[in-house]
Design brief:
Elements: H1 2-8, E1 11-16, E2 19-24, H2 29-35, E3 56-58, E4 67-69
Antiparallel strand pairs: 1-2, 3-4
């Protein structure tokens, strides 16, 4: 019964290094990468998808713009190293 529920979960396309993967929609970015077969070794943050330690670089289909989401936006009082 549990296997049937997993098969029915909605899969969404993601692209990693130009290659397309179908992953469950409920996964975090890191878990989706692991689901696709990548091994994350260092710098993985909290692994829960909520701490905000990771910046994300992405592009929407049909757009040439690269988007960046940083958990904390740098301001004049912060220094990025």
């Amino acid at each position: 019964m549990e296997v049937e529920a997993k098969k029915q979960e909605e899969l969404v396309p993601i692209f990693i290094m130009g290659k397309r993967y179908e992953v469950p929609a409920s996964l975090t970015i890191q878990k989706a990468m692991e689901y696709a077969g990548y091994q994350l070794i260092r710098g993985c943050g909290c692994r829960g998808g909520i701490c905000g330690a990771c910046g994300t670089v992405y592009r929407f289909p049909g757009s040439y713009k690269i988007e960046v989401d940083w958990p904390v936006k740098p301001s004049s009082s912060q220094t990025c190293i």
